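hey so u asked for the seq, here:
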Amino acid sequence: MGGPVSCEVRDRVASIKLDDGKVNVMSTAMLGEMGKALDHAEGKADIVILRSARPGIFSAGFDLKVFAAGDAPRSLEMVRAGAELALRLMSFPIPTIGVMEGHAFPMGTFLLLACDFRLGASGAHRMGLNEVAIGIAPPSFAIELARSRVHPAWLSRTATFGEMYEPDEALAAGFLDRVVEPESIALTLAELTTALRSIHKPSHATAKKRLRQSTMDIMRMAIDRELTLSAYQASNPARAAVALPST
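ran it, structure tokens below
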């Protein structure tokens, strides 16, 4: 498959790459294409690698122009699509590896947090939940997802102050599992996929579900409670004031 999201399966490893020609904005359409890529990988692959094909950027996050337009139904559709995709990644039946080689603004960070293993390339790029810095409160589904992976003090600062972290700080915080030099990403991915081939996939899927079920249940309740049109319209009337993030 091509377009802004490609999925190539080789030796039962699915490589899903994001490339919208710009900064991989997580529009409703982009999120839908990512869902199709997971559909393509499921049943054909034993491992999924999620990464960007754009230099210096994993994703700029949700499409802020949609928020700024004040179109609540379109905004809700986009956020809900992102929430459902993150929830799907949390329970995906085969191992997933998220690769951060550039900036990952919130929805990009959420997707990386939902992957089983988060690999980062060192460099002057950042990830985190910076919504409050641009005039948005982080959605509850995202806070609960982050709570399951990020150390409490770091989560509090990123969620309430909008702090963003470079790879070494992100590693310490729990956003990432490993950080290597950019030139070592390919070798590290080869090592990881070799190791992951040896695990028993049904046991992996069961262990993942047992580990994350309580978080996924809370995320589902948050999505169903918070991401309705009436609740969404009432929750953040100042979305038209969102500011573009600085990268």
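The two ends are 30 Å apart (CA to CA). The CA atoms of residues 17 and 31 lie 12 Å apart.
lmk if thats what u needed
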